[in-house]
DNA sequence: ATACATTGTCATCGG
DNA sequence: CTCCGATGACAATGT
């Protein structure tokens, strides 16, 4: 019972914190008076405080608040934290400035709209909402993608529609791994090499500083809430200590942050001190706030949402990503830059959140669910440290005070992960803003990270995980400005400065081990990758990811124990082996043109190339993970799965597959051969292979999924679209095996069955000579040869069919155009005809008039006027005009002279 | 459940 | 005659 109550309280707390409080604050910022209905739950002073920032009322409210606080209302007697003083001061100043701040309504509204759903999910942790999931996705992202194939999968499946519970379940499963990975990740980051160096740091720092006030304000509010519900903190602390799955239940770690900022044994005292300090300091700070506040504010609202579905920002981010992917250069990038503010806000929010526990709640609760408390805690620390570095001394003091406290107080899990990611993204964004061109050129890695981050934001929570794709994350850590933070954090040190609780957590052997692996992976796996990428104009990135996949195929079964390592190693190894080919085929089906262009044409611009590569990498891992899973399962259950599929398939296939049911053996062959021989030698040697991917439909199918091993790609990707859809159902549908199996085309399966050492792509795309050489150079059985030839034939025919259809479509379109052109011509002709008729009518009319006029002047011999109805004019050859009677036309000629005489006379 | 679209494959034709 | 591409037709699958 008590636990339930506590939970309920927590939820309520979450609800208040994340939902109502922030909403109220934001609304108040907009000048809207909000009645959240907190009165019953909150002390009046707090209520005011929450609503205080509202427009012009702010100062007064704060004053009141101050008074109340001074009265001893809910202040923490024990806490005379100097840090708190600064914090309070800053916060106060910030709050004051709020009055003057104008929050863009549009952004605010958007934020609010997006934000709104949050509270609900918070209430029911068991039923994570989209928002919750978003953070989860982020969390996943944090993990090294390469390390966590599953994460990718989750992301893929983690579409909004998907049941949150499922995800959660998965998350729980991965909880330990996640924690370990997170630790590794951060340790790695800390250890960090950051190519980017301090680059872009200045801007970021400024931004954060600006935003800090907001965060602090929120923190204060949250803290107050926390204090109101004392249970939470203790609970959270215990939770953190336990580092158990319970973490997910906790409200998105505002508590952790709050506690660190202002150690609050006695909430009331703390508040009093803080607020007093703030009031005292208010005056000086205000000045700064105005300018800063504007910026910060613009972002602030958005930032929260970032935790959520990232609506506004996400779009922008997405655009950025796309732009980058497409290799769009400066011009195109302008769009992203323009949007930067929003993005910035979104991205920055994380940083803020780091600083501000209050903000954290905004972040989808999913993060909380992640359970990576240790890691999260770490992240928080890092973030805090980072913020400290960038933020004014105040934060430094607060944060720097005692990392351990932070950990103790925090539900590390809640905010940290998203925050970190956000920070990274923010950093990237900042960098972009600061020096877009420079950034890209100088720090391609940043771009990569940028992409990753964007993906995180862009992609729905689920998709974000994909972005984690590992490589990107690693790059981010290593290269991105964020690395700076990380480095700084390092000092505080996971290992060194970690507070006892955290250290204990970290100490966990498994975690350390994973972490170590991660480090290794990052160091070994990525640097080569980078080099390779540079060498191959960014192709390798994709390849690496693909390689990972391919690797997975081979070792997926064994990987589980130490995924990170295997992945990384795979990446390294295969980086060498796979190169061009996989890349060629890695084009995403969704946007073949874009991807292609970016890939090949964009190579000119480092930024674009990088971005594209990164994107592809992201994608590829994404798919790869699936592939990995598929492969793993395929290998494991190749027999079973194949059998299932084969049920539908013809007997020959069955036979073949049975023969090759060995499945497990095949991967090796494929890997060895295709990778080394086919990919490396042949593919590199044959530029045409690349082109295949471009305009040939054949490749498109596989495009997004760089086939881990050259073989099997065609069908796989053919079904890529299907995959996307299937992903959702994968885990939970019994048909998973089937779908996976279907990933491979029949030929692929057959090839596997017969252990054909060449990839289908190779078989199909090689020139005749090469193909023959290939066949001759390897001892192949009849069946194998026959199959290879069939594969080649079918593959060729497939391409031919595609081309044919394309051509047909072209012809069709051409005919349609022609038809439309003819229609237009017809219309024009009709119009001309109408005009001609009109002219004719006019001429007739005028002629008639002329007739009338002429006859009116003609007279007969008797001098009587001629009736036009009775007579008519005849124009003779010799310019003679004769008036003839209509009745006497027959004899006119005879009388012509007469009439003519008459006329002449007349004329005369 | 149906119609339509897409894609792969086969059979065939012609260069 | 063989090879290979083009294309119609069919089937499977997805939307």
TrEMBL record:
<feature type="region of interest" description="Disordered">
    <location>
        <begin position="700"/>
        <end position="732"/>
    </location>
</feature>
<keyword id="KW-0010">Activator</keyword>
<keyword id="KW-0443">Lipid metabolism</keyword>
<keyword id="KW-0325">Glycoprotein</keyword>
<dbReference type="GO" id="GO:0008203">
    <property type="term" value="P:cholesterol metabolic process"/>
</dbReference>
<keyword id="KW-1133">Transmembrane helix</keyword>
<dbReference type="InterPro" id="IPR004826">
    <property type="entry name" value="bZIP_Maf"/>
</dbReference>
<keyword id="KW-0812">Transmembrane</keyword>
<feature type="compositionally biased region" description="Basic residues">
    <location>
        <begin position="714"/>
        <end position="731"/>
    </location>
</feature>
<keyword id="KW-0805">Transcription regulation</keyword>
<dbReference type="GO" id="GO:0005634">
    <property type="term" value="C:nucleus"/>
</dbReference>
<feature type="compositionally biased region" description="Acidic residues">
    <location>
        <begin position="622"/>
        <end position="636"/>
    </location>
</feature>
<feature type="region of interest" description="Disordered">
    <location>
        <begin position="548"/>
        <end position="641"/>
    </location>
</feature>
<feature type="compositionally biased region" description="Basic and acidic residues">
    <location>
        <begin position="548"/>
        <end position="570"/>
    </location>
</feature>
<feature type="region of interest" description="Disordered">
    <location>
        <begin position="295"/>
        <end position="314"/>
    </location>
</feature>
<feature type="region of interest" description="Disordered">
    <location>
        <begin position="233"/>
        <end position="261"/>
    </location>
</feature>
<dbReference type="InterPro" id="IPR008917">
    <property type="entry name" value="TF_DNA-bd_sf"/>
</dbReference>
<comment type="similarity">
    <text>Belongs to the bZIP family. CNC subfamily.</text>
</comment>
<keyword id="KW-0678">Repressor</keyword>
<feature type="region of interest" description="Disordered">
    <location>
        <begin position="133"/>
        <end position="212"/>
    </location>
</feature>
<keyword id="KW-0238">DNA-binding</keyword>
<keyword id="KW-0753">Steroid metabolism</keyword>
<feature type="compositionally biased region" description="Basic and acidic residues">
    <location>
        <begin position="202"/>
        <end position="211"/>
    </location>
</feature>
<dbReference type="InterPro" id="IPR047167">
    <property type="entry name" value="NFE2-like"/>
</dbReference>
<dbReference type="InterPro" id="IPR004827">
    <property type="entry name" value="bZIP"/>
</dbReference>
<feature type="compositionally biased region" description="Acidic residues">
    <location>
        <begin position="168"/>
        <end position="177"/>
    </location>
</feature>
<feature type="domain" description="BZIP">
    <location>
        <begin position="787"/>
        <end position="850"/>
    </location>
</feature>
<keyword id="KW-1207">Sterol metabolism</keyword>
<feature type="compositionally biased region" description="Basic and acidic residues">
    <location>
        <begin position="138"/>
        <end position="156"/>
    </location>
</feature>
<keyword id="KW-0175">Coiled coil</keyword>
<dbReference type="GO" id="GO:0000978">
    <property type="term" value="F:RNA polymerase II cis-regulatory region sequence-specific DNA binding"/>
</dbReference>
<keyword id="KW-0153">Cholesterol metabolism</keyword>
<keyword id="KW-0539">Nucleus</keyword>
<keyword id="KW-0804">Transcription</keyword>
<dbReference type="GO" id="GO:0008289">
    <property type="term" value="F:lipid binding"/>
</dbReference>
<keyword id="KW-0446">Lipid-binding</keyword>
<keyword id="KW-0735">Signal-anchor</keyword>
<keyword id="KW-0256">Endoplasmic reticulum</keyword>
<feature type="compositionally biased region" description="Low complexity">
    <location>
        <begin position="588"/>
        <end position="621"/>
    </location>
</feature>
<protein>
    <recommendedName>
        <fullName>Endoplasmic reticulum membrane sensor NFE2L1</fullName>
    </recommendedName>
</protein>
<dbReference type="Pfam" id="PF03131">
    <property type="entry name" value="bZIP_Maf"/>
</dbReference>
<feature type="coiled-coil region">
    <location>
        <begin position="826"/>
        <end position="853"/>
    </location>
</feature>
């Amino acid at each position: 019972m008590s636990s339930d109550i506590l939970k309920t309280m927590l939820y309520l707390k979450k609800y208040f914190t994340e939902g109502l409080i922030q909403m109220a604050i934001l609304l108040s910022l907009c000048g809207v008076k909000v009645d959240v209905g907190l009165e019953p739950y909150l002390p009046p002073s707090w209520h005011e405080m929450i609503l205080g920032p509202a427009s012009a009322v702010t100062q007064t409210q704060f004053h009141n608040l101050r008074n109340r606080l001074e009265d001893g209302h809910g202040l923490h007697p024990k806490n005379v934290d100097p840090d708190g003083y600064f914090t309070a001061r800053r916060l106060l100043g910030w709050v004051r400035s709020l009055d003057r701040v104008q929050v863009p309504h549009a952004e605010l509204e958007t934020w609010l709209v997006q934000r709104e759903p949050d509270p609900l999910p918070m209430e029911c942790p068991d039923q994570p909402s989209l928002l919750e999931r978003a953070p989860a996705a982020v969390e996943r992202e944090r993990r090294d993608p390469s390390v966590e194939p599953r994460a990718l999968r989750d992301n893929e499946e983690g579409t909004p529609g998907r049941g949150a519970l499922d995800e959660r379940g998965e998350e729980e499963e991965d909880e330990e791994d996640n924690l370990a990975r997170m630790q590794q990740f951060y340790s790695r980051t800390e250890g960090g090499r950051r190519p980017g160096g301090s680059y872009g740091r200045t801007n970021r720092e400024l931004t954060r500083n600006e935003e800090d006030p907001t965060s602090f304000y929120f923190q204060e509010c949250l803290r107050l809430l926390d204090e109101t519900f004392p249970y939470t903190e203790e609970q959270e602390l215990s939770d953190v200590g336990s580092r158990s799955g319970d973490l997910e239940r906790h409200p998105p770690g505002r508590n952790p942050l709050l506690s660190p900022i202002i150690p609050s044994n006695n909430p009331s005292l703390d508040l009093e001190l803080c607020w007093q300090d703030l009031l005292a300091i208010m005056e000086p700070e205000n000045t700064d706030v105005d300018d800063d506040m504007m910026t910060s504010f613009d972002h602030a609202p958005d930032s929260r949402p970032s935790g959520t579905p990232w609506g506004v920002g996400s779009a922008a981010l997405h655009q950025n990503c796309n732009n980058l992917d497409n290799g769009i250069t400066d011009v195109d990038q302008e769009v992203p830059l323009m949007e930067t503010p929003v993005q910035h806000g979104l991205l920055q929010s994380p940083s803020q959140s780091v600083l501000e526990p209050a903000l954290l709640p905004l972040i989808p609760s999913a993060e909380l669910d992640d359970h990576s408390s240790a890691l999260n805690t770490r992240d928080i620390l890092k973030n805090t440290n980072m913020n400290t570095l960038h933020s004014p001394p105040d934060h430094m003091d607060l944060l720097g005070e005692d990392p351990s406290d932070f950990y103790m107080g925090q539900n590390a899990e809640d905010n940290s992960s998203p925050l970190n990611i956000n920070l990274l993204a923010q950093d990237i964004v900042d960098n972009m803003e600061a020096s877009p061109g420079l950034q890209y050129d100088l720090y391609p890695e940043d771009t990569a990270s940028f992409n990753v981050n964007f993906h995180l934001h862009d992609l729905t929570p689920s998709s974000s995980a994909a972005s984690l794709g590992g490589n990107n994350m690693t790059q981010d850590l290593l290269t991105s400005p964020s690395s700076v933070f990380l480095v700084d954090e390092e000092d505080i040190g996971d290992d060194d400065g970690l507070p006892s609780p955290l250290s204990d957590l970290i100490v966990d052997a498994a975690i350390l081990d994973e972490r170590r692996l991660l480090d290794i992976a990052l160091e070994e796996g990525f640097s080569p990758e980078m080099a390779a990428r540079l060498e191959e104009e960014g192709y390798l990135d994709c390849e690496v990811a693909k390689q990972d996949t391919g690797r997975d195929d081979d070792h997926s079964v064994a990987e589980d124990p130490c995924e990170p390592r295997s992945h990384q190693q795979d990446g390294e190894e295969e980086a060498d082996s796979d190169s061009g080919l996989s890349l060629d085929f890695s084009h995403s089906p969704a946007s073949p043109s874009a991807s292609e262009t970016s890939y090949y044409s964009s190579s000119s611009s480092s930024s674009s190339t990088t971005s594209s590569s990164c994107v592809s990498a992201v994608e590829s891992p994404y798919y790869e993970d699936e592939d990995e899973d598929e492969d793993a399962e395929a290998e494991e259950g190749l027999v079973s799965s194949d059998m299932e599929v084969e049920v539908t398939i013809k007997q020959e296939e069955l036979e073949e597959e049975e023969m090759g049911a060995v499945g497990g053996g095949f991967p090796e062959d494929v890997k060895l051969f295709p990778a080394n021989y086919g990919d490396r030698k042949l593919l590199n040697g044959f530029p045409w292979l690349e082109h295949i991917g471009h305009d040939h439909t054949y490749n498109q199918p596989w495009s997004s999924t760089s086939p881990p091993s050259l073989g099997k790609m065609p069908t796989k990707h053919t079904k890529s679209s299907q995959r996307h859809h299937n992903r959702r159902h994968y885990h939970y549908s019994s048909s998973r095996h089937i779908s996976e199996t279907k990933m491979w085309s029949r030929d692929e399966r057959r090839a596997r069955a017969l252990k054909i050492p060449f990839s289908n792509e190779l078989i199909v795309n090689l020139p005749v000579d090469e193909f023959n050489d290939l066949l001759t150079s390897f001892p192949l059985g009849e069946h194998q040869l026959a199959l290879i030839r069939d594969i080649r034939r079918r593959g060729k025919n497939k391409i031919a069919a595609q081309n044919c259809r394309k051509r047909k479509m072209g012809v069709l379109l051409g005919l349609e155009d022609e038809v439309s052109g003819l229609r237009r011509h017809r219309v024009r002709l009709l119009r001309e005809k109408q005009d001609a008729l009109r002219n004719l009518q006019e001429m007739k009319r005028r002629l008639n008039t002329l007739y009338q006029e002429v006859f009116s002047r003609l007279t007969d011999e008797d001098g009587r006027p001629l009736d036009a109805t009775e007579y008519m004019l005849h124009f003779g050859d010799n310019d003679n005009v004769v008036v003839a009677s209509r009745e006497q036309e027959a004899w006119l000629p005879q009388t012509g002279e007469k009439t003519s005489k008459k006329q002449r006379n007349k004329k005369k």
